[in-house]
């Protein structure tokens, strides 16, 4: 009877250790895949930072040039409104 209990305890302990080892290995593999994905993401973010760095000066220059166009475009808009008002008055008077 004692021999059976010893064998059963050893078998049960071995099964628990094997199941625990299996799940710990699965957890390790998931964490490894997650770390690899984070490495890829970090590399992509560094590439984005490096590729968009030169845009700062270009965008500043484009913004300055567009700011210079603001007043002439506003004047053109006023002229177009005057034309529309004139045409509308001509159509209403007919």
Span of the ends, CA to CA? 117 Å
Number of domains: 2
For the biggest sheet, the summary is: none
Q: Globular, elongated, flat, extended or rod-shaped: what is the shape?
A: elongated
Helices and strands: which structural class? mainly alpha
**Which oligomeric form is depicted?**
single chain
Helix content: over 70%
Strand content: under 5%
Runs in which pLDDT lies below 50 for 5 or more consecutive residues are: none
- Mean pLDDT metric: 92
Task: Give the strand tally.
Answer: 0
Helix and strand run: HH
Radius of gyration: 37 Å
- Count of alpha and pi helical runs: 2
What does this structure look like?
The structure is a single chain. With 94 residues, the chain is mostly helical. The chain has 2 domains: 1-52; 57-94. Helix content is 96%, strand content 0%. It has 2 helices and no strands.
SSE layout and pairings?
Blueprint: H1 2-52, H2 55-93
Summarize it:
96% of the residues lie in helices and 0% in strands. By secondary structure, the chain is mostly helical. The model has no long low-confidence stretch (mean pLDDT 92).
Provide tags for this entry.
94 residues, mainly alpha, 2 domains, 2 helices, 96% helix, elongated
């Amino acid at each position: 009877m004692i021999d059976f209990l010893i064998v059963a305890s050893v078998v049960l302990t071995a099964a628990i250790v094997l199941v625990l080892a299996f799940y710990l290995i699965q957890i390790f593999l998931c964490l490894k895949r997650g770390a690899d994905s984070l490495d890829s993401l970090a590399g992509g973010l560094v590439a984005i930072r490096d590729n968009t760095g030169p845009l700062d000066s270009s965008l500043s220059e484009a913004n300055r040039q567009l700011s210079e166009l603001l007043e002439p475009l506003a004047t053109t808009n006023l002229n177009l409104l005057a034309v529309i008002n004139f045409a509308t008055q001509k159509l209403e008077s007919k």
